[in-house]
Here is the input.
Amino acid sequence: MVEGASILKVRRLRPGARLPQRVTPGSTGLDLFACIEEANAIELGRDPVLVPTGIAIEVPPGYDAQVRPRSGLSAKGVGVAFGTIDSDYRGEVLVTMYLFGALDSYTIRHGDRIAQLVIGRWADLPVVEVDALSETERGPTGHGSTGV
Here is the structure.
């Protein structure tokens, strides 16, 4: 390890927990895995459910970790709530999951890939109240899209 290098520290909280894993060299997201040995499975429905990963992480100062959906699960109607893990959080990484669309049920089993963990740099920008913002071609139109 390089002295002073930024690293993501991961602690297994239970024996069956898996470390986050980058599947391909170009992947920005690290796969997160369900760690539900005691229950063996969690049945998802319309209401949000916290799915444990069995790991805690230490994100270096100046970074955050974002829990994001996996596109393959989203295409099936399995949702993951976007979440932020701050650099001072040391608890278990939990993934909020739910169903949408026509899907009535979906079973999460121990070891399933359930979400992605993406590490990002954050900017410590001051918040300044102003009377007006600069003008742009787009302006205030196109909420929810670029207007195209």
The first helix runs from residue 71 to 76. The mean pLDDT is 91. The chain has one helix and ten strands.
